[in-house]
Amino acid sequence: MTTKEKAKLIKQAGKIYTLGLTVERRREKLRRLVEKKVPYDSPQMKQALSEFETADEEWKRLEQEHLDYKRQLGIDP
């Protein structure tokens, strides 16, 4: 594996980690809203859910991209 390939793997992993923290913060925000008994159909809850889903989908996309790249390099994911 070349230095450039290693750097790309590390960069991808860093993005996944950082985005994972964002996903967990947004999940926690949803949890707090539920605990406060905010109605599920309220604008506040809908916004929080949308933010969570957006971050979660991006995390899944980046993770798949990372796994595909590792597979391409012959690294068992």
What does the model show?
The chain is mainly α and 77 residues long. It has one domain (3-64). Helix content is 82%, strand content 0%. It has helices spanning 3-35, 43-72. Helix 1 runs antiparallel to helix 2.
Q: What's the helix and strand layout?
A:
Blueprint: H1 3-35, H2 43-72
Helix pairs in contact: 1-2
Q: Descriptors for this entry?
A:
elongated; 2 helices; 77 residues; mainly alpha
Summarize, please.
The protein is built from two helices and no strands.
Estimated structural class = mainly alpha
**Main beta sheet, described?**
none
Average of pLDDT: 96
Low-confidence stretches are none
Shape: elongated
